[in-house]
Amino acid sequence: MNFFIVLFNRIINILKYPIAMLFALLTYELLMMLVEVIEIIYNYKTFYKPLFIGMGVYFVLWFILFNNRQGNWFLTIEHEFTHTLFALLTFHKIVDFKATDNMGGHMQYSGVGGGNWLITIAPYFFPTFSMFIVGLIYFSKSQYYPVLTMLLGYSIVYHIHSTYKETSSQQPDIQEVGVPFALLFLPSANIFSLITLLSFIPNDRIYFWRLSEHLSDYISVHFIDLIEYFEKLIMLRATL
Predict the structure, then answer these.
(1) Cβ neighbour number for residue 84 with a 10 Å cutoff
(2) Residue-wise over 169-198: b if at least 16 C-beta within 10 A, else e?
(3) Are 177 and 120 in contact (CB under 8 A)?
(4) With CB atoms 3.0 to 4.6 Å apart as the test, which of 37, 50, 79, 137 could cross-link to 150 if both were Cys?
(5) pLDDT tens across 19-49, in order?
(6) Terminal CA-to-CA distance of the chain, rounded, Å?
């Protein structure tokens, strides 16, 4: 078991920059997909009214909630909980967890895995609060969908705001994974997270699996093009 955990985390670390490059190459396509999703939401705005209400509530409340001590505490605890979640998912043991309203927070883990970049960067792209709401939606009765969709709208704007507020080249987490990596990975990773959340609204007209299939087709085509490009480059260098 220990061998598997070590191998699993090493593979994650080996794939760090290949994944970052892949997400960087997908940025334009993901932006186009997001535009398509926004167009669908606009065309069926009556259906998405609860989502808009939730988003509007956040805009009204953030000056009251997220600029005071309680709001900062929630932002910190969600940030550290996201670190914790990814540490647990990659088979690490949590040995310390702390969140404060004015002195930040920290999470420490141990284990044979040795850590990985996903644990470090997760709070800057993974919408933990929103995914919790999505889970509630899919385990709830349809009569609660409007209220939960409203909460989802609230959580989406919260994620965008908190990510903007937290992300900085001076952040220790960003410095640990490297600013170049963050620049390559985070923009498209956040766009993908937003598309995913919007596609999880029940009974809507945004189909996550259709979007995923489109994205996988795009990746396969351009991955082949990229391999052919490198093959030509290698052959050219061999003839010089």
Answers:
(1) 20
(2) eeeebbeebbeebbebbbbbbbbbbbbbbb
(3) yes
(4) 50
(5) 998 899 889 889 988 998 899 899 998 999 9
(6) 49
Quick one: angle between helices 16-25 and 208-239, nearest 10? 110
Domain boundaries, the chain: 2-206, 207-240
Burial class (CB in 10 A: 0-12, 13-18, 19+), 232: exposed
Tens of pLDDT, residues 159-211: 998 899 889 988 999 999 999 999 999 999 999 999 989 988 887 777 777 77
Please report the sign of the dihedral spanned by the C-alpha atoms of residue 204, residue 34, residue 183, residue 55. negative
Please tell me which residue, 223 or 123, carries the higher pLDDT value.
Answer: 123
Task: Report helix angle 145-166 to 128-138, nearest 10.
Answer: 170
Beta bridge partners of 105: 99
Whether 33 and 218 have beta carbons less than 8 Å apart is answered as: no
* Six-digit token string for 83: 């670190």
Cβ-contact 159, 130 below 8 angstroms? yes
